[in-house]
Amino acid sequence: MTDTQSQPTGHAPQTVAPDPAFAAEAVASAELYERAAADRLGFWAEQARTLLEWEQDFTETLDWSGAPFAKWFVDGRLNVAHNCVDRHVEAGNGDRVAIHFEGEPGDARSLTYADLAREVRQAANALTALGVQAGDRVAIYLPMIPEAVVAMLACARIGAPHGVVFGGFSADALRSRIEDAEAKVVITCDGSYRRGKPTTLKPAVDAALAKGASSVTNVLVVRRNGEQVDWTEGRDVWWHEALAAAPEEHEAQAFDSEHPLFILYTSGTTGKPKGILHTSGGYLTQAAYTSRNVLDLKPERDVYWCTADVGWVTGHSYITYGPLALGATQVVYEGTPDTPDKDRWWSIVAKYGVTVLYTAPTAIRTCMKWGEEYPGRHDLSSLRLLGSVGENINPEAWSWYRRVIGGGKAPIVDTWWQTETGGHMISPLPGVTALKPGSAQQPVPGIVAEVVDDAGNPVGNGEAGYLVLTEPWPAMLRGLWGDPQRYADTYWSRFPGMYFAGDGAKRDEDGDIWLLGRVDDVMNVSGHRLSTAEIESALVSHPKVAEAAVVGATDETTGQAVVAFVILRGGEEEGPETIIDLRNHVGQEIGPIAKPKSIMVVAELPKTRSGKIMRRLLRDVAENRATGDVTTLTDAGVMDTIRAGMSKST
Ligand code: ATP
Ligand code: MG
C-alpha cells in the first residue's frame, strides 16, 4: 500500500496497488487505455468484431448525425441469443455449465450451454406459436429462476423486445408497465420462495390484467412451486406444456444492430421511473466487453455470481447478456441472503467455488451489520475478484468487503453506471488500476466522462461539479419508450452536446472521480455545497453506525440543514451521548460545517426494491411534507415507522 492525499473523509489515505499475481492472469491491460485513446471508434469496432458474431458486418461504427439518437454498428446484423448461447455450443462448449441454479429451499440444478440452447429454441417456438412476432413486446414477471434468463433470450431470439418487471412489484406497478409497453404476452410463474415460505406471482398478473392491460393475449406460466393459481382458459398457458409441444429446432434470424432489445424502468430514486430503451449490437458489445475487462471473466476459469435481480439493469447486462455472450459459468440464486440462516450467500460461494462476486453496497453493509461470524463459517478462498454497483461504496464498507469476503487480497471494482448507460462506464480495471476505496476512479477504456461546473467547463483536480459523458457510447440508451422529447430534455438539455447523468462528482488531486450522490441531493449549508455521500461515509466510519442516509432540509438561517438518519450496529445504545458523539465524529472527519443539525436513529431506511436509499422520501419527512411516489419502495411501512419515531424524538 502507498499513501496519497486523496481521501475526502479524512481516513488514513491509501491506494491499493495491484497484486502482481492477479495482474499476471488478468484479462485487461494498461494498453487498452492507449488503444482506445488513439482511435476510440476503431477500438469499439474491434471489440464488436472480436467479441460478437455478426451475420452481416457493419459498414459504419457510429452514426451520430441524428444526435442525441445514436446508431452504432450501422447496417450490421446479428442475433443476440445466438451470440449468448448457440455459438458456444457450435464452438464445442455445449457441456460447459451456463447456470448453476440454487433454489431457496435448497433444490439445485445445473444447465449446460446445450441445455440452455435447447430451452431457448423451444421457448422461441412457443412464443411464435402464441403469435408473437419481431417487434411485439413481451412482459416478463418472474423470480430468479433459470426460466427468467431463458425467457429473455427467447424474446431476443425472435426480435421481440422484453420488459422485465421485478417479481416483487405490485399488480399496479406491473399493469402500468405492461400498458406503457403494450405487451402482447406476459411470462410469469405460479410462485417462488421467500424467507422459507412459498409466495405467489400469478395472482398479481391476474389482478393487473383484470384492471386493464388489454393488449395482452396470453399469459405463459412457469410452474415453480406448485401453489394453486387461478386459470383463465384460452389465455393462460403452462410454460412446460408449451415448450414440450414446441420443436427443438429453431432458425435464429439476424436483426439490425439497432433492433430494440428491451425496455427497462429505472429504480425511481429521483421520481417516477423512466422506461429506458436499449437496442442490440452496441448494447451487447459493451456488456460483453465490460464483463471481460472489468469483471475479468474468463469462461474456462471462472464461476461468476451476480446477486442482482433480473428486474434491474445489472441483471440484464451482468447476468443474462454480458456473461453469457462470453460463454461464462454463473450461479443464479432464487432467495434471500438470510434463509435458512445469515450465512446462505457464503455457503453458496463455497459450494460452487465462486471466483467473481458482484453485489451492491446495501448488501455489504447488511452483512457488516450481521457480523463476521457468518462469512467466517465458510471457505471463501475461491473468491479472487469482488464487484460493487448501485450506490457509493463507503470506504469503511469497501475495507470490510475486501478483508472479510476477499481474504484481504481480492481487488474490488467499484462500477459506476446507470440503467441508461447499459454497461459499466467508470470503474477501475482489476489488475491494472491502483485502487482507491470509495472512488470509481476512471472511465473504462473507450468511454469519455468529465466533471463540469455550472457553465459546462471541466473542473480542475480537487474540485467538484456535475458528472457528464461527452461522447456517445455503444450501450447508451436509444431513448425513453414512446417519449423522444423527454429523452432529449432529461439528459441532453442541461449541458448542450453532453449527456447529463444527474450525479454530482469530484476529481481528487490525482484526477480520479468520486461520486458524490444525486445532484438533487446535494446540500447547500450557509453557502457550502455538501455531499450526501461524504457525510454518510463519515457516519458509517464510526464504529457504532451500520448505515446512514443524509438529506438537506430547508432551514431559515442556513438555507439548508444537514439531517441524518442512522441505523446503529447490533447492541449499540441510542442515548444522547451517541448523538453528540456522531456529530463530533462528522465534524472531525469533514469539518464543523458538515455536522448534522439533527440525527435520528431509525431501525430501517427507505430503500428501492433494488436496494438504493430513497433520500427524496427522507427529505419529505425532514421538511414535513406528504411522502412522494413510493411505488418502487420495498416496504411502504418503513416511512410510517420513521415518521412516528420523528414525532417522538423532537
Ligand atoms: P431514477 O433514475 O428513476 O431516479 P436510479 O437512478 O436509482 O433511478 P439506476 O439506473 O438503477 O436508477 O441507478 C443509477 C444511479 O445509481 C446512478 O445515477 C448513481 O446515482 C447510482 N450509482 C450506480 N453505481 C454507482 C457507483 N458505483 N457509485 C456511486 N453511485 C452509483
Ligand atoms: Mg437515474
From TrEMBL:
Segments passing through the bilayer: none
Co-factor(s): Mg(2+)
GO biological process: acetyl-CoA biosynthetic process from acetate
Binding, CoA: 194-197, 314, 526
Domain Acetyl-coenzyme A synthetase N-terminal: 30-84
Keywords: Acetylation, ATP-binding, Ligase, Magnesium, Metal-binding, Nucleotide-binding
PROSITE patterns: AMP_BINDING
Keyword match Metal-binding: yes
Modified residues (N6-acetyllysine): 612
Known function: Catalyzes the conversion of acetate into acetyl-CoA (AcCoA), an essential intermediate at the junction of anabolic and catabolic pathways. AcsA undergoes a two-step reaction. In the first half reaction, AcsA combines acetate with ATP to form acetyl-adenylate (AcAMP) intermediate. In the second half reaction, it can then transfer the acetyl group from AcAMP to the sulfhydryl group of CoA, forming the product AcCoA.
Record's protein name: Acetyl-coenzyme A synthetase
Gene: acsA
